[in-house]
Amino acid sequence: MSEYKILIVEDSPTMRQLISFALKRLRGIKIVEANDGVDGLKKLSGDKFDLIFTDINMPIMDGLKLVSLVRNDPGYRETPIVVITTEGAQEDRERALALGANDYITKPIQANRILEVAKALLKIA
Amino acid sequence: MSVDDEKGLHSRGDEFLQIFKKGAEFTQELMRENERLRFRLIELEGVLTNHPEGEGDGSSESMHLRARIADLEKEKEEIITRIKQVEAENQDFANRYLEVEYENNNLANLYIASYQLHSTLDFQEVLQIITEIIINLVGAEEFAVLLLDEKNNELQPAATEGISQADLPKIRLGQGIIGEMAKTGENYFIEDPAGYQRDLGHPMVCIPLKIKEHVIGVIVIYKLLVQKSEFAEVDYELFTLLAGHAATAIFSSKLYSESERKLSTIQGFIDLLTK
Question: Which CATH code, of 3.40.50.720, 2.30.180.10, 3.40.50.2300, 3.40.50.880, is assigned to A4-122?
Fold first, then answer.
């Protein structure tokens, strides 16, 4: 069975664990966690990922900057990115999508929504 | 009349008689044929009367086929009934699967909240985790964690989100909804969250943080996230979990911080005495 690698970039340990918990229901998934955008970039440079989940509001480097940098990297131009936002932050969401994010999930996050988005972007039936 | 004429007449008379005889024989023959056909007709009518339509020749095969059709019809009805039963069972399983999924998600949320609350002994980190749980799991936008100062029986803000600590009124134990809930240890939920107007003295939710029956503070919520108009069943379970686990996490971390501080002070004295 093929293995998918997913990177979760999120400063909140609670959120990281929530997303990770939901994604672990998919078979053949390997999850790597990063605390912020800079940590996310480090992890991206050392490995190859199939999907990236990133929060928008993070210290050091926010999710919008991360999306922009990832999309400018030839190695990750096609890698799907999902941003995590609040329902009220429509402007951030639109900016993230304009920068190249593929989809978004809103807080409070639902495990079913995470699975639905991951399955669609990884093309898992 | 001459002899020749007489002979000619006799000859023609014989011919006529011959023709007449032949005509009579033909007529009799026709009558016999007619009689035979009438008899045959009566016979066939009799057969038809005794054997209704379809039960003539090959009637046993026809009967067999009819019986087979009836069996197959019955079998078809049974299969249709069974399919309907299976469809109903499938629907039931699908509904139960959704319920189990929902419960599973809720349990995962409760597990994560509990796990995170007890993952540190740092007081500020515990407050941060409580804040994250209320934002990310409950879905609140404006809220505060108030801790009871037992020296003057006042609830003091320890953490806030979406509101300034300075804006919160001073609340004494037993005063208003918040003080009353802190005193009695009971949870308070407003009946109509969608129609709630923010009032810092009267929150939409007030959850006392309790260690057994001892209240150490309260969580008050003033506003939910835009997409959340009401509380789900799991929210009440989360509030119950927060009431207990957040209280012990806060209490433990405060004790730990105090013991660390005392240890540091004692160590300082020891250092002074020994140097």
Answer: 3.40.50.2300
